[in-house]
Amino acid sequence: MRRWRRFGSGLARGLLLVALVVLLLVVAGLVLLQTSWSREQLRSLIVTQANHYLTAKLSIGRLSGSLVRGIELDDVRLARGDATLVAIDRVTVAYSIRELVSNGTVIRSLTLDRPRIAAAREPDGRWNLGALIRRDTQRNQRTGPGRRIVISSIDINEGSVSLLDPLVFGAAHVPSRFEHLNTHFSKRDGT
């Protein structure tokens, strides 16, 4: 009987030690994620991966914030050659880690501060913004995202849009410049 008590006591101490080591590793990982080195690695990874799918070049000046609750991207640009198509001073993304890895990706809020968009027609007649994503070379085998993506709210602060080519619908001419665009979109509950 004594042997079993000692075995049970040793097993409990061993499990407690393993739990403590795992907890320390998790804390060390979270601390490492908050360093400027890890943020720079994440910024570089985002830019590299996005540029595989875009026909324009994405650049992000700086990534900051808490990787656990939300991040901020400063000086975000999409450019094709010398022409900047989209420039955003700051993109703020708020989320919860649990909601990012649950069934679908949920982003609580997305805020765009001072987005500036320059739209122009391509030689084939399409708008340059409509041609930002690379076309799938295997069109017949298309698949959508494996997970649903939900953005609960989107805020645009002090945005501007410039149409470098005229947009005409019969006799109606759309203005070529829109300034001071401020708006809020939010998902209704249950949708």
Classify the beta-strand content into a percent band: 35-45%
Global morphology: elongated
Count of the domains: 1
Biggest β-sheet: count, sense, barrel? 7 strands, mixed
- Roughly how many Å is the radius of gyration? 24 Å
**Residue runs with pLDDT of under 50 for 5 or more positions:** none
Order of helices and strands: HHEEEHEEEEEE
* Estimated structural class: alpha+beta
- What level of helicity do the residues show? 25-40%
Through-space gap between termini: 61 Å
The count of helical stretches stands at 3
Average pLDDT across residues? 81
What is the number of E strands? 9
Q: If you had to describe this structure to a student in words, what would you say it looks like?
A:
- The protein has one domain.
- The radius of gyration is 24 Å and the shape is elongated.
- Strands 1, 2, 3, 4, 5, 6 and 9 form a seven-stranded mixed beta sheet that branches.
- It starts with a helix and ends in a 5-residue tail after the last strand.
- It is an alpha+beta fold.
- It contains three helices and nine strands.
